[in-house]
Amino acid sequence: MRGLMQDAPLTIDTIFRHAEQHHGDVPIVTNNPGGKVRSSYGEWADRTRRLGGVLDSLGISADGRVGTFAWNSARHLELYFAAPCTGRVLHTLNVRLFPEQLTYIANHAEDEVVFVDRTVLHLLWPLIDTMKTVQHVVVMDDGGDNEIPDDPRVLDYETLLAQAQAVDFHTTDENAAASMCYTSGTTGNPKGVVYSHRSTVLHTMAVISPNGFGIGVEDVAMPVVPMFHANAWGIAQAAPAAGAAMVFPGAMMQPKALADLIIDEHVTFTAGVPTIWQGVLPHLAGREHVLRKIGCGGSAVPKALSEAYKEQVGLPIYQAWGMTETHPVASGGTLAARYADADEETKAGQRARAGLPLFGLEARIVDADTLEPQAWDDTATGELQVRGPWCAAEYYNPDPGTVLSTPDGWMKTGDVAAMDGFGNIRIADRTKDLIKSGGEWISSVDLENAIMSHPKVAEAAVVGIPHPKWDERPLACVVLKSGETATEQEILDHLAPLVAKWWMPDAVEFIDEVPKTSVGKFSKKDLRTRFAEYPIQG
Ligand code: ADP
C-alpha cells in the first residue's frame, strides 16, 4: 500500500513564496557604512523577482553559477533566492580567501557573473582577468569608497534592477543544485560542496525547529556568521521561512557596531563564531537587550565564554556543531534540563557540549580505519561521522583520491569526538590538518611547505594552539638542519612574502625533532599536547 499524500517538491521557491505572501510587512535592516537601509520582505520579494529578470537579461545559463562576493545584506538575501529560484546556482565566494584560492574556485565553479559589494571591490577586481568564465561584475554600492572601474564588464546593481522585469519562480526538481560553497582542504585545492533545493529546505526546517535555533515569527534574527561562509548557518533561509525580521550587519563587523545593532534593532536571535562573541561581550555586558538565543560554533566554544555570557548578558551561548559539508548545522543544544538538579559545574559542562544531532541526521563515533563503533561513555573517542539528507555525499569534481564517505554510507568529518550515554557530542580533537582562526581556516600544510623552503630548515610542523581571541593560532615548530642557527624573526621574514598576513604564525619554537607516528607521519597530536599551554599573547 502506498501513502496517498501529495508529492510536492521541496524547493527554495516555497520559502520565498511563504515570506512573500504572509510576511510582506516584516522588516529587514542592513547596516551599511553610509547608514542603515530599511525595507521589508514585501520589497525584498519584489526586488528578488526583478533580480531573476536581471539574471535572464545578462544571459546567465539555465544552471549557471552566480557568484557573490559580499557581506551580509538585504541585497545578498535577494541573490540567495533569485539565483536558485530561477534554476541557477548561487556560489558565495569567501572575501577572506587568498587571491589564488579565489581564482581557483571561481574557475572551478565556472562562475558567469560575480555580484560584489563596493566595500570589497578592491579585493576582487584585480583578479577579474584570471577568472576565465566571469563575464559580468555587478557592483552593489553599499557606501564603500572603492573606485568603480570604467570597464564594459562592470554594471550597477540598482540600475539593472530598475530596468528589469519581474519573473515567476517555479523550480520543480528538488534534487537540482541550489547553491555551492567551497571549504578548505587539508592539502590540495578547496573543495566544492553543492547543496540541493531539497537539502536546503530540510536543513531550514531543522534550523527553525526548537531544538535547532528555534526561529519563529516573533524573532528578529541577525546572522553575524557571514553569508559567504557555510551558507550563513542556514539563517538566511530560516528567517524568511519563519517570518522572522532580519538585521544584517553589512560591512560593519566591528564588535561595538554589532552590540549596538543588537540593542537598537531589538535582535532576539543571533549567531556567529566564538571570536565574534568574545569581542562583543564587553560592549553588550550590563546593557538592556531582548536577546533570547546566541548561536555559536565553527570552533570549540570555550566554557568560560558561555558562562561569561550567562553572567554578564543573562543568557548562555547555544553551541552548535557542523561543517560546510553538513549545510552546516548538524548538532546543537543542551540537555541542561535533564540535569536540573545537578551542580552548577555539571550544568556548565552540559552547556559546553556540541549537543545532539538535530532530528533528521544521525551521528556515530568510530575508529577511523576499521569503522569499529566506540562506546558512548564520554571517554572513548572516535571519528565523528554523520549521515542524513543534508550531509554531502561527495564533492564537486574533487581532486583525485578525495574521499568524503565511508563504504557504508556515512560522511567522514575529520573531527574526533566522544559521546555520552545520550549520544550528546563532545568535540575532542581534529584529524584535519587545519587551524581555525577567527572562524576561517589556515592550512598548516601550506605553512609548513613555505617554512621548509627556508634553506636552513630541515623540518617544520605547524599546529594550532588555543588563543583567547582567535580560538586557535598557528605555532611553527621548526627543526633546523644540523649545524645551522636561525632566529624566529629570520623564519617569519622568510614567510612574510609567501603567505597572507593573518596566516603568519604567532610564534616559532625550535625543536630537536618532529614527533612521528608509527607510520612515520608528523604526530600533530603530540605537538598539540606538548604546546597546549603555550603562553601566547591575547
Ligand atoms: P563552520 O565554520 O560553519 O562550522 P566549516 O566547514 O568552515 O564550517 O568548519 C567545520 C569545522 O569546524 C568542523 O569540522 C570542526 O572542526 C569545527 N567546528 C564546528 N563547530 C564546532 C564546535 N561546536 N566545536 C568544535 N569545533 C567545531
For the structure shown, list the relevant keywords:
538 residues; alpha/beta; Rossmann fold; GMP Synthetase, Chain A, domain 3; 3 domains; nine-stranded mixed β-sheet; seven-stranded mixed β-sheet; 15 helices; 27% helix; globular; binds adenosine-5'-diphosphate
Give structural notes.
With 538 residues, the chain is an alpha/beta fold. 27% of the residues lie in helices and 25% in strands. It folds into 3 domains: 12-251, ANL, N-terminal domain (Rossmann fold, 3-Layer(aba) Sandwich); 254-430, Rossmann fold (3-Layer(aba) Sandwich), CATH 3.40.50.12780; 434-530, ANL, C-terminal domain (GMP Synthetase, Chain A, domain 3), CATH 3.30.300. It contains 15 helices and 25 strands. The strands form 5 sheets. It has a 9-stranded mixed beta sheet with strand order 2-1-11-10-12-13-14-15-16. Strands 7-6-5-3-4-8-9 form a 7-stranded mixed beta sheet, with helices on both faces. Helix 2 packs across helix 6, helix 7 crosses helix 8 (235-242) and helix 9 packs across helix 10 (274-284). It is globular. The termini are far apart. The mean pLDDT is 94. Adenosine-5'-diphosphate (ADP) binds at residues 183, 230, 297-301, 319, 321-324, 328, 354, 413-415, 427, 430, 436, 439. Residues 183, 230, 297-301, 319, 321-324, 328, 354, 413-415, 427, 430, 436, 439 line the site of adenosine-5'-diphosphate.
Shape: globular
Category by helix and strand content: alpha/beta
CATH architecture descriptor of the largest domain: 3-Layer(aba) Sandwich
Q: Helical amount among residues, as a percent range?
A: 25-40%
Determine the strand fraction and express it as a percent band.
Answer: 25-35%
Terminus-to-terminus distance: 64 Å
The major beta sheet can be summarized as: 9 strands, mixed
CATH class of the largest domain: Alpha Beta
